Amino acid sequence: MTSQRRVVAEVLAGDHVHLTADEVHARAVARLPEIARATVYNTLGELVALGEVVELSTDGRAKRYDPNAHRPHQHLVCSDCGIIRDVHPTGDPLAVLPPGERFGFSVSKADVTYRGLCPACS
Amino acid sequence: MTSQRRVVAEVLAGDHVHLTADEVHARAVARLPEIARATVYNTLGELVALGEVVELSTDGRAKRYDPNAHRPHQHLVCSDCGIIRDVHPTGDPLAVLPPGERFGFSVSKADVTYRGLCPACS
DNA sequence: TTCTTGACTTGGACTAGGTCCATCGTAGGA
DNA sequence: TCCTACGATGGACCTAGTCCAAGTCAAGAA
Q1: Distance from C-alpha of B56 to C-alpha of B21, rounded to nearest angstrom
Q2: CATH says B3-66 is which class?
Q3: Would you state the pLDDT for residue A59?
Q4: Is the pLDDT of residue B1 over 90?
Q5: Ramachandran area for residue B79 (φ above 0: left; ψ -120 to 50: alpha; else beta)
Q6: Nearest to A114 among B76, B78, B97 (CB)
Q7: CB contact under 8 A, A87 and B93
Q8: Which residues of B touch A (CB under 8 A)?
């Protein structure tokens, strides 16, 4: 654990946090001015590999990093401003995929992105 | 309707077709050698705006274009080789998101990506 | 028929997001 | 103290996508 890695982990703390790598870098620089972009990417990649952070790409642009990795959840995204909330649907999302629709895959996970307008945009 | 647009539409025909813009361009060039990349991007953008094609980004890399836009469906992706199948889960995916988990959003749509290993990779 | 107009296409420059890699720095061990 | 190895650095590079000025083409007007 180096100071660089600690800063990246600190920046990614809290609920409903979904920063891009660039945003993580900007906030890390505020605390540790000489931290390099490559270090942020490396550290984010390691956190994802360790299962401490989940990576999501809700818009096909920059990936976002979500530190809420220990409680399974899905994401609700505003189609207008892009704000993201963590949400917890009821039931098992895999249960609604019938065997005949699995094409022989061993399905292990379902990522759901709910889309709509947030209160501020609607 | 120009020859360029017709070629792009023809390239994107069929079931379980999920090509990237570059793949569409490569196949379009095979039929119409002088077609430009920008034209392919423009045409894909128009097809998406018209609702004839849906855009998906299952891996945070290149967007893919799915001509199966008229029957609602979700996607099943192999975590290893990336192959994509269109699937039809039962029920309404929005129904499992309770009002208390909507944070005041007017939710209109749920994009589900099922992940697992395809028969060839498992 | 020729001209005008406007929509479409082209190719190249440019941008964002991300990756790669040679080099540097530093902590810990011999 | 010197070595070693891992991690950090910064700059080059890559890929996907966008932008824009200029060129092309077809339909309608004169």
Answers
A1: 11
A2: mainly alpha
A3: 86
A4: no
A5: alpha
A6: B97
A7: no
A8: 55, 57, 59-60, 63, 76, 78-79, 85, 87-91, 93-94, 96-98, 101-119, 122
What's the pLDDT tens digit per position in A14-37? 989 999 999 999 999 999 999 999
- Determine phi and psi for A108, rounding to 5 degrees: -120, -10
Nearest to B54 by CA among B27, B77, B72: B72
Known binding residue B121? Answer is: yes
Between helix B37-50 and helix B21-31 the angle, nearest 10°, is: 110
| CB-count burial class (<10 Å; 0-12, 13-18, 19+) for B59 | middle
Q: Does the distance separating the beta carbons of A91 and B114 come in below 8 Å?
A: no
Q: Report which secondary-structure segment, H or E, holds B40.
A: helix B37-50
Mutate to test the interface with B, among A63, A80, A81, A112 (most CBs of B within 10 A): A112
Residues 6+ apart with CB under 8 A from B93: A96, A112, B74, B110, B112
The answer, yes or no, to whether residue B60 has pLDDT greater than 90, is no
Q: How does pLDDT run across B87-121, given as a tens digit for each residue?
A: 999 999 999 999 999 999 999 999 999 999 999 99
Tokens (6 digits) for B64: 């893919």
| Alpha helices, H only, chain A | 3-11, 21-31, 37-50
